[in-house]
Specification:
The chain has about 90 residues and is an alpha+beta fold. The chain has a domain of about 35 residues. It has three helices and two strands, in the order αββαα. Strands 1-2 form a two-stranded antiparallel sheet. A hairpin with a 4-residue loop joins strand 1 and strand 2. The longest helix is centred in the C-terminal third of the chain and has 19 residues.
C-alpha cells in the first residue's frame, strides 16, 4: 500500500511505482469514478487510437467471396434466430 497526500490545490501525487506499473506518463488523462468510500482512477483512453488500416488484418478472410445475396440471407437468418429466441 502506498500513502500520498492531498495538496491544498486538490492535487494528489500517484507514486512512481504505480505510474510505472500502469504505464502512465505526465499528461495522462484519467477518469475519476466515485466508488462510495473512495475514488477509482482509470485512464481515459486505455488504448492508443488506431486507424482501420492498422487493424484491418484481423478481418482477413481467405474463403470464396460472398455475394450480396449470401450476405442478405445470413442477415435474415440471424434476425429470424434472434426473433425466435425472444418468443
Amino acid at each position: 500500500m502506498k500513502v500520498t497526500k492531498l495538496s491544498s490545490k486538490g492535487q494528489v501525487i500517484i507514486p512512481k511505482t504505480l505510474r510505472a506499473a500502469h504505464n502512465w506518463e505526465a499528461g495522462q488523462e484519467l477518469i475519476a469514478i466515485d466508488v462510495g468510500d473512495g475514488i477509482l482512477l482509470k485512464p481515459k483512453k486505455p488504448f492508443p487510437e488506431t486507424t482501420l488500416a492498422q487493424v484491418a488484418g484481423c478481418l482477413e478472410y481467405s474463403g470464396k467471396p460472398k455475394s450480396l445475396d449470401d450476405i442478405e440471407d445470413a442477415i435474415h437468418q440471424g434476425v429470424m434466430e434472434q426473433w425466435h429466441d425472444c418468443s
